[in-house]
Structures are given as structure tokens and as C-alpha cells.
Amino acid sequence: MFQRIAAVLLFCGLILSPAYPAAVDEGMYPISEIMKLDLRSKGLEIDPAEIYSTDRSLIFAIVGVGATGSFVSPDGLFVTNHHVAFGAVQAASTRENDYIRDGFLARTRAEEIQAKGMTARITESFRDVSAEVLSSVLPGMDFAARTKAIEKRTKEIVAQTEKDNPGKRAEVSEMFTGKTYILFIYTYLKDIRMVYVPPRSIGEFGGEEDNWMWPRHTGDFSFLRAYVAPDGSPADYSPQNVPFKPKRFLRIQPRGVDEGDFVFLLGYPGRTYRHSAASFLAFEEEVRMPYVVDWYARQIDLMEKMGAGDRGVALLHASRIKGLANTMKNYRGKLKGMKRLGLVERRREDEKALQRFIEADLERRERYGTILTDIAAVYDDNRASFGSEAILGYLGSSVNLLGLASTVHEAGIERPKPDLEREPAYMDRNFPRVRQRLMLGLRNHYEPTDKAVFRELILKASKLPEASRIKPLDEALGGDFSETAIGGYLNKMYAGTRLNDSRFVEKLLEMTPGELAKVEDPFLDLARALYPDVLELREKQKARRGALDPLYARLSDVKELFLGKGFIPDANGTLRLTYGRIKGYEPVDAVDYSPITTLRGVIEKTTGREPFDTPPALAELFEKRDFGAFEHPRLRDVPVCILYDTDTTGGNSGSPVINARGELIGINFDRTYEATINDYAWSEEYSRSIAVDIRYVLWVTQKFGRADFLLKELGL
User: Fold this and answer.
1) Stretch 154-164: mean pLDDT, rounded?
2) How far apart are alpha carbons 31 and 333 in whole angstroms?
3) Is 317 noted as a catalytic residue in this protein?
4) Distance of CA 641 to the CA centre of its chain
5) Which domain-ending residue is among 540, 558, 576?
6) Is residue 409 annotated as part of the catalytic site, yes or no?
7) Do 636 and 522 belong together in one domain?
8) Exposure of 344 by Cβ count < 10 A (0-12 exposed, 13-18 middle, 19+ buried)?
9) Is 220 a catalytic residue?
10) pLDDT by residue (tens digit) across 258-274?
11) In the chain, how many domains are there?
12) What does the alpha-carbon distance between residue 30 and residue 37 come to, in Å, rounded to a whole number?
């Protein structure tokens, strides 16, 4: 099996260096690329083959949990970030048991509680299916038909793979846009339970004020455990389930690391856009990201005001605020970095050089001459209709009851179809998760906030130009967007709906299309009215993708000709490796940051108020210098966070930071503000990632949490 894995990944990795020359350590490498990187000369002490090419290799210790985690015991115990587990902690919290504020500790396996909404996936194998996927594209297809054909063929490959591999989950990932497709097979674990979660005053110390910043003093970690059925097969939550036995788990090095040490990360980084055209970057900088920043800031402000005097309401909003705020600050950092670097203009200069190369040869000119202008035309079209498209999308994602109604309505249309003909969310393999998300969303529903968010979107829609109007909203308001009219409309909507009743929603999801059509509900009525617009937008998006995919495939080809070598694909949520060293940096003139923070810094930042409200028991341990075995010999303190120059992005949250001997020494959780631009560009000077030091994880767990039994399970 591993010979096949290696061969496929070597194929993916004909793509080795960035599209344009950069520092040699840039890269989120497909795992097979380690054999080309000469990691031994960089500082790796174990055989690189141990990372991926045996039945007990390190990749089997890595789990995808929406972000990343890693197994640290033979009994399914894994560690990830506090912020990765936050949604599950929030779902389990009540006024009486506020696990966000107070933390959670299960002293026995029986006390471990379900982490609702969390799953874990383990990469088992890979196979190149590019030829199979692209065989579905026929000459003369229009752009939307091309996208639909690829989607249909992908579904067929996934369905057959899952039939041939019972209990496994398959996904086809596009490695190079329009060009390279890889089939991944995963073990997919559905019963995840909380074991130890520190209180928010540790796990999110510094809050949004410190988010994306250095120096950092955040204990961003949580322990969870994966369970399976007694026969070892993946299963939904059940008291009869038993701890999962991973093929491999990471050993912990309690002595940690020091400045200059070699480290590497394994994880599931999300999307990067380093091979995208300048026209895309300009669209991001000038249109999409500013819009998202503004809209997210408005939602956060609304929710914070709603929850200011009521802890119960604040708990309902906690996970959503955290997610929105994280993205908002990330985008602000990206925008600042793009302007500081002049990134769009630099990419345009690169493309001018590429265009001159194309024009210098008749054959190249005929094949590639208009690629860049053709790509730009697609993004110009996106710009022209972005306002209405964004509002239509946010009506379904930001307004809880309207999003729920839209899902119920479309489920009634899609579920009766043959499975492979449905939209992906409504396929049998995915629909249970959709139902679960709907129920969790209802649990967090708070009508005044939902109503206020809906009001804001109606006001945004009222300002759209005539050609871009969302007609069902215009008709619903009778063209009257005064405060009085909007208020009356919303009051009528929320007073007349039953979609805030989870039992009613469950019944709706079981109805036939005919039965559902007879249900009268104001939100369902609006969802029905908006559905043609949704379908039109979806068709337009498929057409854009159908246009861009072959263009980007050809752009990759000509870049390889221009550079005389290949380059690695952008990150896409699949397993990758990145490496570097524990290293500080100088973000601005006369500021030199060292790469290790300590417990003393926690105490120095403490104000007694959120987000710097250190628990008194932790401060007392510091005063007593009760550092145990986790004191750094040079710093004479407990290390809290570490900084390193690996190449990471979103999805690397929770990635294990591993030393030269293959031992866990930290848990990645963030980047510096200057490195938020990593999605578009990487710099040896300013791209730094941040982890909680394993010594702080262990010290908090043992000394503050008094969970010695966990350290024993970790083999310490």
C-alpha cells in the first residue's frame, strides 16, 4: 500500500518550489516530498521514511478535526487547540455547567462527555484519479456543464470507493486547479469526547486583543478522546463504545525545545492562493475581504450587545463570535500585509514577465497568449455582481431561521432524487451531519439577535442598484424599506414561524415534497421565493469555476515552462508537512522578538479582567515557583509559547510541532499578525507561527488541573 501512496504523492509533488522564486524553506509539502527535501541536512534526526512510509508511520498519529490534532496515547487520547474544541465545549455548556468559563475535567472514562459536532479523520491512502475525473469533460461543453460533469464523476468515484472500503470515507481533492485530482481514503471517527479543557482564562488568555499577535501567553490546548464500536469500527456516540486504538501515537518530549532547534509540523492546512492570478488578488484586496471584515464586525457588535447583561445569551453567541472575530482580524492582517508588500502590483509585474515569455514564441502565444486576460474577465464578472451575491449568501448563512428554512426546503427537493444526483449536502453520506448542524444551530438560536442580523441584511439589500435587486425581498417589503416597515415585517416573520421548535424541524425533514409544500410558515415561504435566485447564483458559480479550471491548468503548464521546474500545489485541506526552526523576528524597526515566552509574562499581563484574568490558583503556583519538571533551565521559568518559521495557514491549528527525533514539543495555534498574509505569500523574514509549548500544557494539566492521571497515560 505504501509504495502506491509514495508513487501518488511523488506525482503530486512534481510541484516542488513556489510559482515564483522565494526562500527555500517555503512550502506546505505533500508528504512524499520529504524525500526530495533532504531534511537530514536541515536537522531531522529520524529516518524521513518514518514519517510516511510504514504501517506505523507518523501520519497515522495525525487527525483532522476541522483543523488538526494528534494522538498522544494508545487509547485514542488526542490533543488539539482549545479554540478548535471551543464549539463542542460551548455546546455542552449551560448556566449551571459553564465549561467555557470553568473548564472541564473527566477524572474517569465514564465522566467523558460527548463533543457534539466534532469528528476526526485519519489519512489512510491516496490514489491519483486525474484521468478518471477529467475523462468526464467532453469537447464543446459549456463552462457550467464542465463543472457539473466533474462533480458527477467525482461523486461516482467516491461512492464506489466507499462501497469497496466499508467503514471508510473517501474524498477527491483538487491539487492543481483543473488539472490534478487525488482520491484520499480516511478512517472517519464520529464519537469524540471531552477529557480535559482548561478554563477560558487559560485557553484563550489574551482573547482577541492578543489574537494573531506576539508575544503570546495563551494555553491554547484541549485533550479529547476518540471512541469506536466494540468491534473497532467507526460508530456514532454510544455508551457501549470503546476507546479507539490508533496505529501510531506521538511520544511527548517534556524537555521541550530551545531557540534554533529544528522542528516540523504535520497537519491539514486549509486553502492558500499563492498560484492565483493578480486579478484574483486584486478582487480579494479591493472587494471581498473589506466587505467580509465590515459584515463580521457588525455581527460581532450586535451579539456582544445582546449578551452583555445575560451570561446565558453570551454562551449562545460565544462560538459564533469567536469564529467571526478570528476571521475578521485575520483579514485585517491580510489587507495590511497586501498593502505593505504591494502584493498585487508585485504579482502583476511577475505576470508581465510571464506574458513576455509567452509572446516570445508563436506556439506559446497561440496556446497561452490570452490566459491572464481571460482569467481577469471572470473576476471582473464576479466584481460586478458581488454585492447582491454576497447578500443572498449571507441571508442563508447569517440569519439562522432563514438558513434553516432554506435547508429544509432544498432537502425536500433533493432527498427524493437518486443519491448521486443530489447536491452534496443532501447525499446519504453527508445528510446526517447537516441535520446535526441544524439542531446545534437551533440550540444556539436567540431570536433578538437573529432578527437584528436579518434587519441589517435587509437594509444592505435595499441599497442595491436596480439591476442587482433581490426581488423576493423587495416584494416581501412591498418596496418599503423604512424602519417601520422592516420592523413590522420582521415581527410578523418571527411571530408566525415554528422553525424555532426542533421537534417541528425534525418532522419537516421527514416529509415528502408534497407534504412539505402544504406547510405554511413565513420563513419557508421566503426560502421558496428565494430558491430560484439561489439556483441562478449556483449555476453562475459553476460556470465561473468551469471557466477558471482549464485556464488555471494551462497557467500552471506555462509557469513550469517559464521557470524550468515544477512547484508544489496550494494547500487544500489535505495532509501536508512543513519544517523550520525555533526562531524570533523583527517585525518593525528596533523591535526584536525572542521566540519563547514564559509564565512570568502571563503574570505581567494579568489585570484581573477579561481577557487577562489569570485564575488565582495559577498565579499562586507562579508565586511559589512550583514549576515541577517543566522549568526551562536557562529561562528559570515555565515556557508558555514558542515561535518558529514554518509555513502554516488556517487548518494548521492544533498541528503537532515535532522535534528532530519525532517527539511532540508543542501544539500550533496561530500565526503572527504579519504572517496572516501567508495564504497569498510567505516571507522568511516575517512569516512566523505560534504554538503552546508542551511544557506549559503538561504544567497546567498537572499543577493547575491536578490531572496527574493524564500525564501517566501520556507515559510521563
Assistant:
1) 97
2) 29
3) no
4) 22
5) 540
6) no
7) no
8) buried
9) yes
10) 999 999 999 999 999 99
11) 2
12) 11
Q: How far apart are CA 372 and CA 365, in angstroms?
A: 12
Same-domain pairing of 590 and 644: yes
Task: Please name the residue ranges forming H helices in 126-188.
Answer: 130-134, 143-164
Among 214, 327, 334, CA closest to 681: 334
Indicate whether 494 and 597 sit together in one domain.
no
Q: DSSP letter at 383?
A: H
CA distance 456 to 586: 41
The DSSP code for 593 is: B
Give residue for cell 465514564.
110
Residue 504 grid cell: 417541528
Question: Within a 10 A sphere around the Cβ of 599, how many other Cβ atoms?
Answer: 27
Per the CB < 8 A criterion, the answer to whether 241 and 687 are in contact is no
Instruction: Report whether 148 contacts 136 (CB < 8 A).
Output: no
Catalytic: which of 70, 73, 83, 655?
A: 83
CB distance 245 to 76 below 8 Å = yes
The x, y and z cell numbers of residue 44, run together, are 531531522
pLDDT greater than 60 at residue 582: yes
Q: How far apart are alpha carbons 694 and 217 in whole angstroms?
A: 13
pLDDT of residue 379: 98
**Local structure of residue 419 (DSSP, 8 states):** G
Residues 99 and 30 in one domain: yes
Could you tell me the CA-to-CA distances from 470 to 389, 395, 396, 467, 475 in Å, in that order? 9, 11, 13, 9, 9
Q: How many CA atoms lie within 13 A of 268 on its CB side?
A: 24
Half-sphere exposure of 552 (CA within 13 A, CB side): 25
Classify 63 as helix, strand or coil: strand
Among 595, 613, 593, residue whose Cα is nearest residue 605: 613
Place of cell 479529547: 224
Domain identity same for 27 and 70: yes
Chain length of the chain: 716
Q: Is the pTM value of this prediction over 0.85?
A: yes
- Beta-bridged to residue 637, according to DSSP, are 632
Query: Do the domain assignments include residue 383?
Result: yes
Which of the following is catalytic: 98, 220, 549, 670?
A: 220
Residue numbers of the domain that contains 287 = 283-324+373-540
How far, in Å, are 59, 90, 324, 345, 367 from residue 440 at the CA level? Answer: 31, 10, 17, 44, 51
Question: Where residue 54 sits, what CATH number does that domain have?
Answer: 2.40.10.120
Task: State how far the Cα of 258 lies from the Cα of 594, in Å rounded to an integer.
Answer: 11
Of the candidates 57, 130, 222, 653, the residue annotated as catalytic is: 653
Does any domain span residue 436? yes
Does residue 534 belong to any structural domain of this protein?
yes
* Mean per-residue pLDDT, 272-280: 96
Residues 634 and 529 in one domain: no
> Alpha-carbon torsion 372, 374, 375, 376, what sign?
positive
Residue 25 counted as domain residue = yes
Q: Which amino acid is at 377?
A: A
At residue 108, does pLDDT exceed 60?
A: yes
Q: Are residues 264 and 385 in the same domain?
A: no
| pLDDT of 25 | 54
pLDDT at 32: 64
Residue 498 and residue 399 in one domain = yes
Before 215, cis peptide (omega within 30)? yes
Backbone φ and ψ of 254, nearest 5°: -70, -10
Tens of pLDDT, residues 594-645: 999 999 999 999 999 999 999 999 999 999 999 999 999 999 999 999 999 9
Distance CA 341, CA 336 (A): 9
**Among 540, 560, 595, which residue terminates a domain?**
540
Of residues 589 and 523, more confidence is placed in 523
* Spatial distance between the Cα atoms of 166 and 531, rounded to a whole number of angstroms: 36
